[in-house]
Design goal:
The chain is an alpha+beta fold. It has two domains: about 10-115, Ferredoxin thioredoxin reductase catalytic beta subunit (Ferredoxin Thioredoxin Reductase, Alpha-Beta Complex); about 130-175, Rubrerythrin, domain 2. It is built from six helices and seven strands; from the N terminus they run H-E-H-H-H-E-H-H-E-E-E-E-E. The strands form three sheets. Strands 6-5-7 form a three-stranded antiparallel sheet, with no helix packed on it. A two-stranded antiparallel ribbon has the order 1-2. A hairpin with a 5-residue loop joins strand 5 and strand 6. Helix 1 crosses helix 2 (about 35-50). The model has no long low-confidence stretch (mean pLDDT about 90).
C-alpha cells in the first residue's frame, strides 16, 4: 500500500463504542464478537480516510461517493440482510439470535448490483417514477408509515425498527 494510513487503537475503540451506542439507540445490535467488530471499525476508519466516507470494509468501493452511497455504513442492504439472514453482509449488525449466541453469523450472498446494473438502476430512477395516489407525488419506492409515531420511510420494505420510536417492522403500514 503506497500511503500507509495510521489508525490508533483508541480511534478504533471510540468508533466501536459509537457504533454500538448508535446501533442500540436505533434498535439494532452489533456482532457480540468485540475483536471482530473492532476490525470492522478499523476498516471503516481506513475507508473514511481513504475515500472521505465510511464505505463498508467488506465491499469494493469505487472511491466516488455517488457510486458508493449504497455501501456507506450502515449500508442500504443492512435491513434486508438482517431480515433474511440474521446479519448484514459484513456481519457488523446482527439479529437477536446471533447476538444471544443461539446461532452463528454465516456467509450471505451479495445483494449489491454490479456496476452495469447500478448504472441501469440509476438511469431508471431518473427517468421513471410511479405516480402515487396522493397529490401526484412521484416515487419509485413504496412509502411506509410507522403507525406508532408517523415516521415515513421510502424503501422496498419497512425498516426493521423505527428510528424514532423503536417500533418493530410489523407496526409499519404501506402509506403510498
Amino acid at each position: 500500500m503506497p500511503d500507509e494510513i495510521k489508525i490508533l487503537p483508541e480511534e478504533v475503540e471510540r468508533l466501536h463504542q459509537r457504533l454500538d451506542r448508535d446501533a442500540r439507540n436505533g434498535g439494532y445490535d452489533l456482532n457480540p464478537d468485540i475483536e471482530f467488530t473492532r476490525e470492522l471499525a478499523h476498516g471503516l476508519i481506513y475507508n473514511e480516510r481513504r475515500y472521505g466516507y465510511m464505505a463498508c470494509p467488506c465491499r469494493i468501493a469505487d472511491g466516488e461517493i455517488e457510486k458508493d452511497r449504497d455501501i456507506i455504513c450502515p449500508c442500504d442492504y443492512r435491513d434486508p440482510d438482517l431480515s433474511e439472514f440474521g446479519s448484514c453482509f459484513c456481519a457488523l449488525y446482527v439479529d437477536e439470535e446471533i447476538r444471544d449466541g443461539k446461532k452463528k453469523a454465516r456467509s450471505i450472498p451479495e445483494r449489491r448490483p454490479n456496476e452495469e446494473a447500478r448504472t441501469i438502476l440509476k438511469k431508471e430512477k431518473e427517468e421513471v417514477g410511479t405516480v402515487s395516489q396522493a397529490d401526484g407525488i412521484k416515487t419509485r419506492l413504496p412509502i411506509w408509515r410507522c403507525t406508532v409515531c408517523g415516521y415515513l420511510a421510502a424503501r422496498e420494505e419497512p425498516p426493521l425498527v423505527c428510528p424514532i420510536c423503536k417500533a418493530k417492522k410489523d407496526r409499519f403500514e404501506r402509506y403510498l
